[in-house]
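User: Modeling request: complex.
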Amino acid sequence: MTITRRAAIAAAATLAAPSIVRAQGAAVKIGMITTLSGPGGYLGADIRDAFQLAADTGMFGATKVELVIEDDGLKPAQAKQIANRMLKSDGIKLFTGIVFSNILEAVAPDVLEEGAVYVSPNAGPSSLAGKNCHRNYFVISWQNDSLHESAGENATRLGYKRMYLLAPNYPAGKDAITGFKRFFKGEIVGEAYTKLDQTDYAPEMAQIRAANPDAVFQFHPGGLGIAFLRQYQQAGLVGKIPMVLAAPSLDATTLGAVGEIATGMDVTSHWNSDFDNAANKRFVAGFTERFKRMPTYYASQGYDTALAIAAALKSANPGNAEAFRTAMLKADFASVRGAFKFGANQHPVQDWYGLRVEKGADGKLALVTKGKVLTNHGDAYAAQCKL
Amino acid sequence: MTLLAEQVLNGLQFGVMLFLLAAGLTLVFGIMGLINLAHASLYMIGAFAAAWVQGRTGSFVLALLAGLAAAAATGVAIEVAVLRRLYARDHMDQVLATFGMILFFNEAMAMLFGRQPLMAAVPGWLGGSVEFIPGVPYPVYRLAIIVVGMAVAALLYGLIGHTRVGMLIRAGATHREMVRALGVDIGLLSTGIFGLGAALAGLAGAMTGPLLSVQVGMGDRILITTFVVIVVGGIGSVRGALAGALLVGMVDTLTRAFLPGLLKSVMVATEADAIGAGLSSMAVFILMAVVLLVRPRGLFPAHG
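Assistant: Request completed. Predicted assembly structure:
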C-alpha cells in the first residue's frame, strides 16, 4: 500500500516552501486499523478509500507516506493485537482508522502509552474526551455525543414533544442517548438498549407501537440501521411515527439500500455531499469517479483525516510527538465540511446541519441540506480536559 | 395484553428461524460427530443466492429455491471435499477447519457481492400486515415464516420418525459403526444428511433476507445462538432442536421486551434500561446454564 504516485511535480512544488529537514526516502508509516469485515465493513472501507484517494491525488505533497492497513473485524482484542504489533515490530508512530468506539477504547491506551499519536476519523467516545483526554489524541470527526445533541436540538426545533429512544448497548450507544437528552426539551416516553449484533428488531417495534410517541430517535449505524428501517416499515410504523436521526443511522449507503422508506426522514450531520465549497466538490467528484458510489460521511471524515495529517506532516514528524501536536492543532487544511477547528480537548468545534431525505431533480432520493442546527458546536466534555 | 400477544408471536418467529438452523447443525453433530462452524456460511450463502436471484428475476419463489439449492450444493461440496476427512479427527481440528471455511466464504462473498449490504424486498403478496388478533397488526411475512418453519418441522418429524431413511439417521446417531457394519453406505448417508441440513440453513437465510439485511458475516452472529439451541435441546435430536429453538426464541424476545419494564418497578428508570438490556442479552445463556445443571444432556437427548 505504499503511495507511489507522488511524482517529481509534487516534489518540485514544495521546493519553494521553507526548507524542512527530513531524511530523504524514509516514508512516514501510518497504521490504519479499521473495520473492513462484517456489518460495519463498508464504514471502514469508505474511510480507507477516501484516505487513499487523498493520498493518491497528491494531498500529502512531498511527504512520503506508507499506509499499513489492517482489518480489526470489529473485535477489540484483535485490534489491540494489531496495534501492539504495529507499535513494537513495525515502529509505527501514527495511527488512525478505527470506526467503532469500543475498539478505540481498547486500542487508544496502548497507542498513547507508547508515545504514538492517534488521529480519529470516526469514533469519539466520551471516555476519551473529558478528563482522560490526551495530548497525542486527536479527533477529526466529532465527539460521539455531538451527533446526537444535534439530533436532539433538531427534534426540539421540529416541535416533537414525546420521543422514544433506541440505541445499541455499547459506549457510543450510551453516548447517543445521553447526547440526545442533553439537547431535547420534551419528554422521553421510552428508552431501549438493543444488542450491537442484533438484526431483528421485532420486539422493539412492538414496544414503540405500544408507547405511541410523537417521533422515534434511533442510533443504529451501518447495516443495523438498514435492518431497523426496513422492519420499521414492515411493522407499519413508517408514515405513522416520524423519525429523527443522527448521521450514522442514515448515510448515503443506507439510504440507497432502504430507498423510499426513508422519504421525509430528518437527519442531522456535520457534512453532506451537497455542501457548496471547493474542497468538498473536488472530494465528491473524485470519490464518485474513482469508486463508482456516493461517499458517505465516513468517507468525508477519512478524507479530512488525511488532509489534517498531511497538513501537520508538512512541518513535523510524528516521531517528535510534541512538534507534531503543535502542527496538528493549527488544523491548517481546507475541510470538506467548511469551517473546522479543534477545541480544548482536541475534538472538533464545528457546525451541525439539518438534512432531509427528498427526491432530487434527477428523481433519485438524496439527503438535502435544510439549514444550520448548531453553530460552532464543541462538546460537553472539553471543560473537564486539562492538557 | 395485545403487546404480550405480539411479542409471543415475535418469539415464535425467531424460534422457528433458529430451528431451521439448528436442525441441520444438530443432525450433523449428532450423527457425524462434527462441529460445523461453517453452517453459518451456508446460511449466508442461502441469503445471498436468494437476494441475487430475486434482484434478477423479481420472483420470490425462485429466490427461495435458489437459496435452498445454493446452500445444499455448497454443503454437499464441502462435505465431500473437506469435512469427510474430519469426522474421525479431534473436535479442535474440526473447529479450526470449519472456522477457516467461514473466513473463506466471508471473503468470497465480499469479492462477489461487495461489503455493502444487499437488499431483498418482501414479495407483494406477502407484504402488509393482518390483524388476526384484534389490535395486533402483525406482518404477513413473519407469519409466513412461522408457517414454513412449522411445516419443515412436521416434514422432518415424518422423515425421521416414519421412513427408512429416518430410521437409518436415528440408528446412525446412536451407533454409527454398527450401522456401517450392517452394510449401510454411511458415507452416502452422511452426505445426504449434510445436504439436508445445508438446505435448511439456506432456507433460513433466504427467508431472512427480506427481514434483515443480507451481508457478509451475517451468519456468524446467529451461529452462537444456534449452538445454545442445540445444547439446550440435546445434541443430535431434531425434537430437541425444535423445543430448544422455541424456548430460546421466546426467552430472548420476551426478556428483551419486558425485562427493562419489570426492573423499572424496582429501580431508577435509566439504570433499569441498562441493566435490563444487559440481563436480557445474557438470558439465553443463563437458560443454557440452568438446563445443563438440571439435564446435562439437554431436554431431549438423542443418544440412548
